[in-house]
Design brief:
Blueprint: H1 6-37, H2 42-69, H3 77-81
Amino acid sequence: MKKASFWRLAAAYATDYILLRVLVLAAVACVSAVLRFLGFELRFILLLAGACYWVTGILVNTLYFAALESSEKQASLGKSWLSVKVYKV
């Protein structure tokens, strides 16, 4: 199997990054909407949304890459779409 080029790996990572950011931002938006509905102050919501963004981002990134790259396909969605596979040397 031929090694993937730097640009192919960068494109796969960029695809994964965009996908994950959309998921994390959607989760933060849902939490913010619920807090706003419950009547919390905007300052508190913004503070909590920032913390939620980082914590959720770290958890989602870790679980996403660990689950998908250790799966049968051995690739995240970005790598799978660009036909890049992770394997031991």
